[in-house]
Amino acid sequence: MSLDDLEQQLRPAFLAALAGDAAAYRRFLDAISARLRGYLRQMLARAGRSEASEAEDVLQETLLALHLSRHTYDPASPVTAWAHAIARYKLVDHLRRSGRHAGNLPLDDDAFQLAGPPEDAAVEARLDLARAMQVLPERTRRLIDRVKLQGASVSEAAGAAGMSETAAKVAIHRGLQAMAKFLSRRGVKPS
Amino acid sequence: MRTDDLISLMSASSRPVDTGWLRRATWLCALAALAATAGLVLLTLGARADFAQVWMTPPVVAKAALGASVAVIALSLFHSSLRPGLRPARRLPLLALPFLVAAGWALYTLAQAPAEQWDALIFGRHWRACLIAVPLYALCPLIVLMALARRGAPVDRPLTGACAGLASAGLATIAYSLHCPADTAPFLAIWYTIAIALVTGLGALVLPRLLRW
Q1: What's the pTM?
Q2: Interchain CB distance below 8 Å, A124 and B6
């Protein structure tokens, strides 16, 4: 699928997601993550790293960043360019943190154009996100586990935890923020 | 955690998002910072003694206009730099305009004046004060803009830092024009430009470290 087609498909979904449509958001995230996975694998391979789990790590970090930066999207601009700029930032950040000079990274717009979804689907990420979850308060972690592992809806999980649906969404949002912060600080100072 | 789980989590907990907040916050923060900085100038230095008589004269208006035009252009770039994918660097050349106008006016003034007056026109008695005051007062808006930048997603952090520095220096120029008693065009074109450049450099060097995300 060309970048233009992807844009045609993703933009309405993302605009609906910004207005609060969870199903549209899910469609957007599924499509953009397949695209970004291809892009990140290709770029990491060029930098001499071909382990798929590493690309999955950067992908998860990128998705977190997309999620937490939704308010920075300018509705008049292409959503693929927005997502690509964030992915590139997280990729450069990842390479720099892991000791590779990011200046070596070749211009990458063509890779984003060409990268289709990879043949094999998602691989297991390494443990980064699992470790990030350890920084969350117990209550938030249980909430996240209910939604993520048991496939409960947020309102069900909120009911089980004895809180309102809004409070549960806020708690999960804060949890995602804390995880993103943990990931972006990792490796900056020795821990 | 599998990527698919992360996606479920994010979509299940999503709520409506306001994409206009960043723009409103940028301009409101700038206005608030300008008011605070002007208040600070009035409290610490006071308005110039003859402010009531001269505030509508071209040199005083020119100082404020230079500050305002730099601030408005820089703030617009700053705001775009917090939104990934917009490439505001392409609009950077716009920033040269106010400085070129000031430089043109300064050259014209110098050309009209006899050479023995150049020293007075360029240096006056206050050039050191300008070089110190503008960067110091610019720290106030700079801190406000930095706090705001942390709420955005700056993918080009040196650019965001430089634009924040430029905008802060522009706002500080407006505020300091309430006090600054030097009224010649060459003074404006030289010392204010240098002071603004200092703050821009400071922003470009220091802010990137504080804006990682």
Answers
A1: 0.89
A2: no
